[in-house]
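We keep the chain:
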Amino acid sequence: MSGESVLLTPVIPGKGGFGLRMRAGLLCRTLARLGSVHVVVVPVFGSLGDEAGENMPGDDMTIVDMEDAVTSVAALVDEAERVIVMREYLAGFLETVLNKEQRPLCVLDVDDIESSTRRQFGHWAAAARYEALERRYLPQFDRVLVCSDDDARELGERFGVSPLVAPNAVDIPTKTGSVPPRWDLVFVANLSYPPNVEAARWVCTDVLPRLDGASAALVGLNPAPEVLALGGRDVFVSGTVPDMAPYYAASRVVIVPLHAGGGTSIKVLEAFAHRRPVVATTIGTRGIPVQHGEHLLVADDASSFAAACQQLLDDAERGERLADAAFQLVHERFTTDQISASLADVLSRSGR
């Protein structure tokens, strides 16, 4: 076999943008430490559209046609040394490869346990379909990656596998320009993803009215019609933006108001890297080793969430202390360079 690695992904890997794209970027950089990388994009969600954030540079990339994806993927990975497949819904495109006695090291990245996430939404039929995929494919892979210890325990208990924890990670910004605050709160997210749509609605209808005169920015990717409708005098809604940094810099507090979702919220880590004080729900901090009152403030109901935001709006020094501690946490444990180096070391020593 050659030293080439293949990353099979539903999105184009990027250094920024939304969570799945940044996760693909992390895995791409991991494989680049081991040799050449061929990125194979299977656009299961339809058109790739305008991707927010910078693409990974210098990658050999193939975007396959859905109609012959199984055949195309098999041909593209046949001579590879290792292949990482993102999410269980892409595992079937590797079916013929998994059935071979002589095959690459096959790694499945499950940064979001889809069956559990769908149950949170009450999407029972979809949850059952995803669980069937998980039950079928997880045991067939040589390695399974997850982004938190909680997810590792869950998959171990449910499917008898022993996942490796590869946390989400972010780049530390090289420049953090200082600009006058334009908004009190900022929520950065893929604004077409149902949990984020619901979070945006909750902020605007339940939290902001409790903050006298506060303004908010809803910033990210492809805002859904329900999110666009929230825009007004005190609420700014962006379209897809190429760079989140100016929005972090122009806001006083970053909020992560999630009440459903899986994996870990990469936007918490990103806000930490930009040295912004954060208020989040418990779900928003899932899988990240943070302490309320040390790295951020945590609140789950609208009244408590608004009160936490008000505390940081009224006490900039406290916000700076939280932001400094949170930045230190990311700098020490969750940079892309650290996580990609650690994972690359594990994969380089992983035989079948």
